[in-house]
Amino acid sequence: MIKRLAAEFIGTFWLVLGGCGSAVLAANFGGDGNPLGIGLLGVSLAFGLTVLTGAYALGHISGGHFNPAVSFGLWAGGRFPARDLLPYVIVQVLGGLLAGFILWHIASGTATFVVNPDAAGAFASNGYGTHSPGGYDVGAAFMCEIVMTAMFLVVILGATHPRAPAGFAPLAIGLALTLIHLISIPVTNTSVNPARSTGVAVFAGATAISQLWLFWIAPIAGGLLGGVIYRWLGQEDRA
């Protein structure tokens, strides 16, 4: 169990450092219009790559959740025991917080670094209303996070099914997360992962922290929904 928890800690750390790090350090590198900045497409790909590489490296040890919503969704889908939920969630959040801490210190290495806690997406944080990159309200943000997380779980459960092509699950999961970010960065800056949201919110200021509730409730609700849907779809496999 200790090694499984260590793998979840490292994997979540990698996801938050790689995904949020790309947003903070590289998305607008050199200013708007600079060809070196990776933009929305690059950040989306970075999140997908962290899951893909983390799953290949650590998935055989812990299952490669790296996300409390995924753990809850796998439990709802009958793939994960309830007794392991709390330990997994704790180490996932701790891994995200360590990544946020390290990213903060890296970003602080330049005199131009500043975080405006009232700005949308401050320090790669998630938000709604004035804290949404596109100004989307709380209802839109809530629906987006639920639906995106539910579909993420459907992909995860399907890609890891015994009848799915062996060895390709991390690729499908990483591409799914990339697609999710391409869709929802304008809405919430994309969470679908409470540990990812928490890891940067504590460094982004009061606004991000005050809106953090949505990025726990909606992704976990979406994960549970996705797990239940896929469990129903796969009932014939147990018949």
Question: How do you describe this structure in short?
Answer:
With 239 residues, the chain is mainly α. It is 67% helix and 0% strand. The chain contains nine helices and no strands.
Fraction of residues in H or I helices:
55-70%
Total strands: the figure is: 0
Q: Mind telling me the C-alpha Rg?
A: 17 Å
CATH superfamily: Glycerol uptake facilitator protein
Which stretches are poorly predicted, pLDDT < 50 over at least 5 residues?
A: none
Biggest pleated-sheet summary: none
| Proportion of beta-strand residues | under 5%
Please give the alpha-carbon distance between the first and last residues: 32 Å
**Could you say which structural class the secondary elements and strand pairing correspond to?**
mainly alpha
Estimate the mean pLDDT confidence.
92
State the CATH class. Answer: Mainly Alpha
- In the CATH hierarchy, the architecture is Up-down Bundle
Description:
- With about 240 residues, the chain is an all-alpha fold.
- The longest helix has 25 residues, at about 1-25.
- Helices cover about 65% and strands about 0% of the residues.
- The protein contains 9 helices and no strands.
- It starts with a helix and ends in a 6-residue tail after the last helix.
- Helix 5 (about 140-160) packs antiparallel against helix 6 and helix 5 (about 140-160) runs parallel beside helix 9.
- It catalyses: H2O(in) = H2O(out).
- Homotetramer.
